[in-house]
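re: the backbone from monday

yeah here it is again, tokenized this time
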């Protein structure tokens, strides 16, 4: 199944999106591997909220990912480090083909955006 999907943050000019994309896999390698096994690249979310900072750590409550095709209970069960469920509450994807939007998280990433 082709799971490549567009991202709202690809060209985002804010400093928080590139910070997340370049550091999240190193900060969460086990979750990155579990998500990759179901076709999700942890560094390529569809959308992100603004993080908050706690003691030098950037805290992202979640990231949303687009999964092309059908998201199944088996896909969700393969990821044990966070709970994954589809959501209908998200920005418009502009995609006509079958797809799901799946939030994951939270993510604690060492460092802050200066």
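seq for it, each position gets an aa:
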């Amino acid at each position: 199944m082709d799971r490549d999907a567009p991202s709202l943050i690809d060209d985002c000019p804010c400093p928080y999106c590139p910070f997340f994309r370049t550091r999240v896999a190193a900060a969460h390698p086990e979750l990155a591997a579990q998500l990759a096994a179901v076709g999700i690249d942890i560094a390529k979310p569809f959308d992100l909220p603004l993080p908050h900072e706690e003691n030098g750590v950037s805290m992202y409550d979640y990231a949303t990912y687009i999964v092309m095709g059908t998201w199944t209970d088996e896909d969700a069960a393969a990821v044990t480090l966070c709970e994954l469920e589809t959501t209908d509450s998200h920005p418009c994807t502009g995609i006509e083909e079958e797809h799901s939007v799946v939030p994951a998280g939270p993510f604690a990433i060492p460092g802050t955006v200066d």
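The longest strand covers residues 63-68. The CA atoms of residues 66 and 101 lie 5 Å apart.
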